[in-house]
Amino acid sequence: MSSEKALVQKAKAGDRDAFAALVSAYEGKIYNLALRYLGNREDAMDASQEVFLRVFRFLPGFQEESGFSTWIYRIGVNVCKDMLAKRTRRNELPLEIPDDEEDYRTAEVADSRYDPEAIAQQADLRKALADAIGDLPQQQREMIVLRDIQGLSYEEIAKVLALESGTVKSRLSRARENLRKKLLQSGNIFGASPSKLSKGGKTDAIL
C-alpha cells in the first residue's frame, strides 16, 4: 500500500493529522491549478479553500475507484469551472494576469541564470506565456494547465475530465498549436514548432 493511500484511509477514518498531510501535499498544486484557470491570486486562494472544504466533506464517501490525485484534481477543475461560470454571469474579468515568479518552473541556463538581462527576458517570457494561456478557450487552457504545467499523464487527464485518452491528445495538440500561434503573434517565440515549445512533451523549456 502506498503511503498516500494509507494517509487517505486514515483521513477517511477521521485522522486529522493524516488529512493535514494530504492538504500539505496538494495545496500548492491545487493553488497553481486554480491560478492558471482563474488568472488572479485572490480567486485562486478562494478556489483552493473551497476545494479542500469539499475534500473534507466528501472524503468519507471517496470509494478509491480512482487515485486520490485524480479525485482531487477533478474537484479542483469543477470548482474553477463553477467560479468561471459565476464570473461570466457577473461579466467580470480577471484582476491580474499572474506573472508567477514563484510558481512557473523556469528552465535553468547554467551560464546566464544570474545575468540580470537574462532574468528580465525570462520574466518577460513567463508573462507573455501567462497572457497567452489566459487567452486560450477554456477547454484548451485546461489541457495546457493539466498536462504541461501540472504534469498529469494523458490517462490521468482523461479520468479527471471524464474523456477518452484520444480526445485528450487531440485537444492538447490543438491547444499547443493555438498557444504557439499566440506566442508567435506576440513576437515572443520565433518560428518554433509545437514540439520545440516543449521538452519531453511539456512546456518545461518555457515554464
List keywords for this structure.
207 residues; mainly alpha; Rna Polymerase Sigma Factor, Chain: A; Arc Repressor Mutant, subunit A; 2 domains; 8 helices
Q: Care to describe what's here?
A:
The protein is mainly α. The chain has two domains: 3-89, Orthogonal Bundle (Rna Polymerase Sigma Factor, Chain: A), CATH 1.10.1740; 116-186, Winged helix-like DNA-binding domain superfamily/Winged helix DNA-binding domain (Arc Repressor Mutant, subunit A, Orthogonal Bundle). 65% of the residues lie in helices and 0% in strands. It is built from eight helices and no strands. It has helices at 3-12, 16-38, 41-58, 68-89, 116-135, 138-149, 154-161, 165-186. Helix 2 packs antiparallel against helix 3, helix 2 (16-38) packs across helix 4 and helix 5 crosses helix 8. The radius of gyration is 18 Å and the shape is globular.
Largest sheet: none
Following the backbone from N to C, one meets helices and strands in this order, namely HHHHHHHH
CATH superfamily annotation of the largest domain: RNA polymerase sigma factor, region 2, helix turn helix motif
Beta-strand portion reads under 5%
C-alpha Rg, in Å? 18 Å
The CATH architecture assignment of the largest domain turns out to be: Orthogonal Bundle
The end-to-end span amounts to 34 Å
Percent in helix: 55-70%
Which residues sit in consecutive blocks of at least 5 with pLDDT less than 50?
Answer: 95-114, 190-196, 198-202
Summarize the structure.
By secondary structure, the chain is mainly alpha-helical.
Question: How would the blueprint of this fold be written?
Answer:
Blueprint: H1 3-12, H2 16-38, H3 41-58, H4 68-89, H5 116-135, H6 138-149, H7 154-161, H8 165-186
Helix pairs in contact: 1-2, 2-3, 2-4, 3-4, 4-7, 5-8, 6-8, 7-8
